[in-house]
Write a structure and sequence with these properties.
The chain is mainly alpha-helical. The protein is built from 17 helices and no strands. Helix 9 packs antiparallel against helix 12, helix 11 runs antiparallel to helix 12 and helix 13 packs antiparallel against helix 15. It starts with a helix and ends in a 22-residue tail after the last helix.
Length: 409
């Protein structure tokens, strides 16, 4: 989004009062389809492991490749589209995901798997920064709500993916992954509609706005305060997504090894965790709009730590219950973290969106690779004992200023 667009979102009272729900739900649906297809990849890791005789470290490298391509490019894409809006790039990114999915279905070697997941990750790098900006543009000032609607689609897709993998791919084989390319085609059509709206929005901005001058930083904070706050938020993303990597990539292995469940059952239980993440995302943004984003962030830290600490020591039923609670609480914070960062740097919405989505993916990939090495060297049980302490890093959030107490204008 250009400076003109971001200025209009922040300074045009008329546009602030209009929440474009049709666009928010469209971008949420496309997010659901995008992340549903992406979440198929971790869900079929047990199939990869068996078919190609892979180690945990090699599984981690697949996830690292996937999430680095889905993370490193995102801030660069965001910075570029801040200056040169490309709303139709969303459909183009979905095209890369389509190609990657078909390639995964027919990959005949480990190298081919790495290339395929890299294509899917690149599609994600294009999709997330621009779609998050469009959610910001369509928010009408209800930024937490808009991000929750947008992100809950992604979380729902992430939850549905493993369920479909259990019902279809685990039953009929990896080749059936190609059939999911149909969803990519549907998403491309939805994104063309969103792209047309964004184009008209930007044209309206050019007609109604004469000056470009939106502030680059929060008006009542110094640059140092802004940078320190952004740094704290990035550390929070690290702690949260490093822990989530232990669930997303290795939870099925943990359940299989500790409780002797089948691959299909483990994927269904992973769905429980991912569904709770979708619920947490849905409620986190609107609550942050009402009571302040800092308090939602604090709740996600203090609320989740006791559950992560006791989960390695309980039985199967309590593990499933605790995974649901952990997923809900952890995910409730991300909309608030992202919008908080956007409000700290309102002139750099694309860069911030790409940076935070990219870091979230990147930390997940790095976490998967390192935790895979740790699991090979020790055990999957040891991994979960170590990761249980990660949420405590978030206690540094006490240094965040309360933006709700600081008027922006």
């Amino acid at each position: 989004m250009s400076k003109v667009a971001t200025s209009t979102v922040s300074t045009s009272k008329d546009l602030q009062q209009i929440t474009a729900y049709s666009i928010l739900f469209s971008i949420s649906v496309s997010h659901m389809l995008n992340d549903m297809m992406q979440s198929l990849i971790p869900s079929i890791y047990p199939i990869f492991k068996e078919s190609f005789a892979l180690s945990f470290a090699q599984i981690g490298l697949i996830q690292l490749t996937f999430q680095l391509t889905a993370s490193v490019l995102q801030p660069l894409v965001g910075m570029y589209t801040d200056k040169h809006p490309k709303p139709f790039s969303l459909a183009m990114g979905m095209g890369l995901t389509l190609i990657g999915l078909v390639s995964v279905a027919f990959a005949s070697s480990y190298a081919a798997i790495l290339i395929s997941v890299a294509l899917i990750g690149s599609g994600s790098s294009i999709f997330h920064p621009e779609s998050s900006k469009i959610a910001y543009m369509a928010s009408g000032g209800k930024r937490g709500l808009a991000q929750s609607i947008f992100q809950v689609g992604g979380n729902a897709g992430t939850a549905i993916g493993p369920l479909l993998a259990a019902l279809i791919i685990a039953r009929y084989g990896r080749g059936h992954t190609a059939y999911f390319a149909i969803f990519a085609l549907i998403a491309m059509m939805v994104l063309l509609y969103v792209g047309r709206w964004a184009k008209m929005y930007l044209q309206q901005v050019k007609r109604t706005q004469r000056k470009l001058g939106e502030r680059q930083f929060h008006a009542h904070l110094t640059k140092r305060q802004v940078y320190v706050s952004v740094g704290i938020l990035l550390i929070l993303i690290f702690s949260k997504y490093f822990y989530l990597a232990s669930i997303g990539s290795y939870y099925t292995f943990f359940l299989i090894e500790k409780f002797g469940v089948s691959v299909k059952t483990s994927q269904l239980l992973l769905f429980v965790f991912l569904a709770s993440s979708a619920l947490g995302t849905f409620f986190g943004g609107p609550i942050g709009d009402k009571i302040g984003r800092k308090y939602v962030i604090w709740f996600s830290i203090l609320g989740v730590a006791p559950f992560t600490l006791i989960m390695p020591y309980v039985g199967l039923t309590m593990t499933v219950i605790l995974s649901f609670v952990i997923g809900f609480i952890l995910s409730s914070a991300f909309p608030s973290i992202l919008v908080y960062a956007q409000e700290l740097m309102p002139g750099k919405i694309g860069m911030i969106s790409g940076l935070f989505f990219g870091l979230a993916f990147g930390m997940g990939g790095l976490g998967s690779a390192l935790l895979g090495l740790l699991a090979d060297a020790t055990s999957i049980y040891f991994v979960y004992h170590v990761c249980a302490f990660l949420p405590l890093i978030g206690l540094i959030a006490w240094k965040l200023p309360d933006l709700r107490a600081i008027p922006e204008n």
